[in-house]
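Here is a complete protein record:
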Amino acid sequence: MVKKENLDKTNAWPFVEAKKMLRERKSFIEKKGKITLQTGYGPSGLPHIGTFGEVARTTMIVNALKHLTDLPTEIITFSDDMDGLRKVPDNVPQKDLLQKNLHKPLTEVPDPFEKFKSFGEHNNEMLKNFLDNFNFDYNFKSSTSLYKSGYFNTSLKTILENYDGIMNIILPTLGKERQKTYSPFLPICPNTGKVLEIPVKEINKENSRIIFDNNGEDLEASILDGSCKLQWKVDWAMRWYALDVDFEMYGKDLIESATLSSKIIKLIGKKNPSGFAYELFLDEKGEKISKSKGNGITIDQWLEYASPESLSLYMYQNPKRAKKLYKEIVPKAVDEYLDFIEKAKTQNELQLLMNPVWHVHNSEVPKENMIMSFSMLLNLVETSNADSNDLLWKFVKKYKTDISEQEHPIFDKLVGYAIKYFNDVIKLQKNYKKPNKDERLALEGLIKTLDKCNDRMTPEDIQTLIYSTGKENGYSENLRDWFKLIYQVVFGDENGPRMGFFISFFGVKETKDLILNKIK
């Protein structure tokens, strides 16, 4: 068990949020004897990496809670699958099929992939599959199921009882034209099956029925058993109310919605959950990642190139700062993950609580010794021309004879990731520099320097000689340009590995041959 004094001192954000929740929700949590956290998913498009981030971060808060309290915890992953399909996503087949079913509840829209009964069910199953792949502990709940089964009926009656008060909260936030047609309740049209946004003419609270103005014709509907659904902000508040939610995080674009939903739940008689607004996820162009566009890197792509834990680490870091998610950020994320594992070996308990991998691994940090960085391994894939795990392992063992796959499971997986990432991403971006006369002379000077080296020298001693060679060949004022030249000629990139370490691992003779081959 972690010492209480260290739990009191740590300011790692999962502990900060967990403590805040326990303070804000103390009486409610003690009364029900458990803690309920919720994550929301809108299945109007394929699940993306941002959805994973929300569940991963909530799971980290649950891990912190387990060190702060003995009360049981539950994560509800809620799918708003009764929402109407508002637009056709860009990244799905059979767009005409979806176009014909716009505005119907997502669980009534045919599946364009022809695998499940509906588009909503297809996306729900995708969500559950990738959350299961990460071994998340969650309780999936479907909006359609809870509405139609009557689970929400009591809460819906409470919303109807407070109709006027809710309208007083929402209407001031709307434009004048929208105010004329707004209703917290959206009936499902009995003729078209579409979710209708139409004004209310009359309310019958006693019988839980509403008469709507449907383009001049009366449409009478029950608010119960899935005949109506709620507008988003009211629906969010009702969900918090019905499910007794203690915590929910959300993107900063939903801060205004969370504020209004908090006012609504207070009006109908309960306290709003503890909240946490995180910054948004962006693609390489700085545009918000969207389910309908499918921009940025996908879950499947990340898992082809790196471990689930490296992705969890990326989600842990700086949740209040906007994060770009695209293929080129993967190597840096992996190397930071490996670096944090190394740091953990010498850290005390309080320092460990601040180490991201403690949270990524649910307080069980791996003990594996790291062989090399992922960036270095990518360089090795290129210079060795290895196209299989076995071949790259043989190359590694040529210089590290005392290691085995069994003792290095993290590195063993990195070997496969490196080959895949190099071939899919790096190889396509390579731009090898052809050195001019002076640059060629400098590199030939480096080869002569390597003639004086051997494989028994330390990486630091080799690095020192490389520095000296650069200074002797016109780079004394800017050694960065010296190494940039080496990287551009040898690796086809402006950045590369620490050369002393690379040469000591790759071999002096092999490095000389490599440079000679590149400058010919």
